[in-house]
Amino acid sequence: MYVGNINQWESEKKYMPDFLVPWISKLAEADIQAFLPGRHDLGNGNFMNVDEGKTMAAAEQLMEAHEKYVDIQMVISGNEYIGYQPLCNVGECVERYPESDGYKYAPKLSEDIKILMIPGATFAVFMPGDGHRALCAPDGISKPIRKVILKIRIS
């Protein structure tokens, strides 16, 4: 897992795995406000989801992980925090969606590391070993959110 600020990406990219640099660079150069909702094909099995939805209380959210994709997430508008735990701590999978590479877990909320996503600034990279509980409302009250998720195929 990696959390960064897109405004200092240029000085940080030397620390990232080479295969992720072009994707985060594209995100840094893009006008994310202009992104249209939906799924957008990026070629070679990679794609971008621009989601419009609502945050929820963290207790209502399961943690998820993926086997075939790396997630690069960034909030366009709204407020969100993402809970993180390594998969070795999250217990058994409680829901499986292999057709969409989604695996859900229900670890203790108290063990989440909370990542506050600053709109248009914070980006988070989740590798296959990283459990992430997205769309958590920072104040526990459901509110609208708009975010982008780059899905980078690794297998």
Helix/strand layout:
Blueprint: E1 2-5, H1 9-12, H2 21-29, E2 38-43, E3 46-54, E4 63-65, E5 69-77, E6 80-86, E7 95-97, E8 102-105, E9 113-117, E10 122-126, E11 130-136, E12 144-153
Antiparallel strand pairs: 1-10, 2-3, 3-12, 4-8, 5-10, 5-12, 6-9, 6-11, 7-8
Pfam family, one: DUF386
Organism: Megasphaera paucivorans
InterPro entries: NanQ/TabA/YiaL, NanQ/TabA/YiaL_sf
Structure explained in plain terms:
The model has no long low-confidence stretch (mean pLDDT 97). The chain is mostly beta strands and 155 residues long. The strands form three sheets. Strands 1-10-5-12-3-2 form a six-stranded antiparallel β-sheet, with no helix packed on it. The protein has a three-stranded antiparallel β-sheet with strand order 4-8-7, with no helix packed on it. Helices cover 8% and strands 46% of the residues. It is built from two helices and twelve strands; from the N terminus they run βααβββββββββββ. It has a single domain, classed as Jelly Rolls (Sandwich), CATH 2.60.120.
Radius of gyration: 15 Å
Strand order of the largest sheet: 1-10-5-12-3-2
Biggest sheet features = 6 strands, antiparallel
Helix- and strand-based class? mainly beta
**CATH superfamily membership, which one?**
YhcH/YjgK/YiaL
What is the CATH fold-level name?
A: Jelly Rolls
Just name the CATH architecture: Sandwich
N- to C-terminal distance: 18 Å
Helix content range of the residues, please? under 10%
Mean pLDDT: 97
Provide a count of the helices: 2
